[in-house]
Amino acid sequence: MRPHLSNYAGREQAYVKHHFLADYVERLVFKVASVYRDVVYIDGFSGPWKDQGQSFEDTSFGIALEALRRAKAEWKRIKGVDVTMTALLVERDPEAYRRLLEVIPLYPDIRIKTFSGEFVPLVDDLIKTIPPGAFTFVLMDPKGWKIDMSAVAPLIGRSNTEVVLNFMFDFINRFAMMDQPAIQAGLDALLPATDWRKQLAELAADPMDRGANARKDVLVSAISEVIARLGRYPHVMETPVLYPTKDRTFYSLIYATRSDVGIEVFRECQHDALKAQDLVRDQLKADKRAQATLMDDMFAGTPTGNEFAAKWMAEQEVAARAALIAMIPEGPASVRYGDVWPAVLAKHGVRRRRLARLAAELRASGTLKFLDWAQRKQVPDDDYRVQR
Ligand SMILES: C[S@@+](CC[C@H](N)C(=O)[O-])C[C@H]1O[C@@H](n2cnc3c(N)ncnc32)[C@H](O)[C@@H]1O
């Protein structure tokens, strides 16, 4: 169930984050519960935090609990199987923790265990609480960036685990060049054994100022590398969340998976979240203009020419098309299409269906040759061999 925008006045970026989370958890928990008898959701920084809803429907754990409940009920109905759903919720602020406890009686169908305290020192306890063989979703959404990633490695490195991390890009970017030892130690713990400092220094020395986007690439690559290495994830992807009314990234949602299905679902959820983000931003900008002119904005609801999603997706599509072509060998060698699309989607923000259409267009133009294309097929099957 998607979040309601009315619960997010003044924090619309959280709406976009929750839009993504709701879609992602809902779709993946449902798929995972067809195979695993135990599914666990871990929220390392639960809150509640600035929630405005009646019963936690605008919090990350509330959204996850709803998804767990629905998947459990659906699999019971479809196959008569009982999937045990568990939520492990950590919160260090005593007042927020007290409110967190109020969610337990609302979900008697889910095993909820709450932990009062700091996330990182609780990692061992969390691991011990995960039933053997469970599939686990880990969300880390701190207010800042204080996570010792090496200490979290045993949790995110478990098999059958996926991770979403809210990487507070704009804060980190602003603090990255400050000298204070405590700040730099915190960043070292978040981004161990990466060369982001050197890369940022090179950017700063570059007379062609390539701006915040280039700095973002450096920092997002660093955190992605850390999660990939410490958690042994072949695929780590990012989706940007912008400031509600500024054309700048506020934070990045970083997602790590080991499965092709994860990649595919992530790109779907990303697409929908970016579209939702554009709508919200457009509305907010129109409201702002209307307030400024004290009259109804005659342009409200019409495109501002500033839509992020459309531009971003068009750029990603160009890159995905080039990557697809580059991954396909010249004849007589060939590869299975099913071995190519996950690698393209893992790197570029394009959905599986859209890439399949691009592949069909490349076939029509003669750029790619599919050896097994059946008559009347619109898009390739995974088993089709393809060559240039
Ligand atoms: C950004 S809020 C979480 C919001 C929540 N994920 C959501 O989307 O609804 C971060 C929460 O983490 C808590 N927190 C901050 N540092 C923490 C730590 N080291 N361990 C556990 N909780 C922490 C804060 O008190 C706050 O409630």
Task: Label this structure with key terms.
388 residues; alpha/beta; Rossmann fold; Arc Repressor Mutant, subunit A; 2 domains; 7-stranded mixed beta sheet; 3-stranded antiparallel beta sheet; 10 strands; 48% helix; binds S-adenosylmethionine
Architecture blueprint of SSEs:
Elements: H1 12-32, E1 38-43, H2 60-79, E2 84-91, H3 94-100, E3 111-116, H4 123-129, E4 135-140, H5 149-156, E5 161-167, H6 169-175, H7 181-190, H8 196-205, H9 211-231, E6 235-242, E7 249-257, H10 260-293, H11 308-327, E8 335-336, H12 341-347, H13 352-364, E9 369-370, E10 385-387
Helix pairs in contact: 1-2, 1-10, 4-5, 5-9, 8-9, 10-11
Bound molecules: S-adenosylmethionine.
S-adenosylmethionine is lined by residues 45, 47, 49, 59-60, 90-93, 96, 118-119, 141-143.
Number of helices: 13
Q: How confident is the prediction overall: mean pLDDT?
A: 94
What fold name goes in the CATH topology slot of the largest domain? Rossmann fold
Structural class: alpha/beta
What does this protein look like?
With 388 residues, this protein is of the alpha/beta class. It folds into two domains: 5-285, Vaccinia Virus protein VP39 (Rossmann fold, 3-Layer(aba) Sandwich); 306-387, Arc Repressor Mutant, subunit A. The chain is 48% helix and 15% strand. It has 13 helices and ten strands. The protein has helices spanning 12-32, 60-79, 94-100, 123-129, 149-156, 169-175, 181-190, 196-205, 211-231, 260-293, 308-327, 341-347, 352-364; strands spanning 38-43, 84-91, 111-116, 135-140, 161-167, 235-242, 249-257, 335-336, 369-370, 385-387. The strands form two sheets. A seven-stranded mixed beta sheet has the order 3-2-1-4-5-7-6, with helices on both faces. β2 (84-91), α3 (94-100) and β3 form a beta-alpha-beta unit. α1 (12-32) runs parallel beside α2, α4 runs parallel beside α5 and α5 packs across α9 (211-231). The longest helix has 34 residues, at 260-293. S-adenosylmethionine binds next to β2.
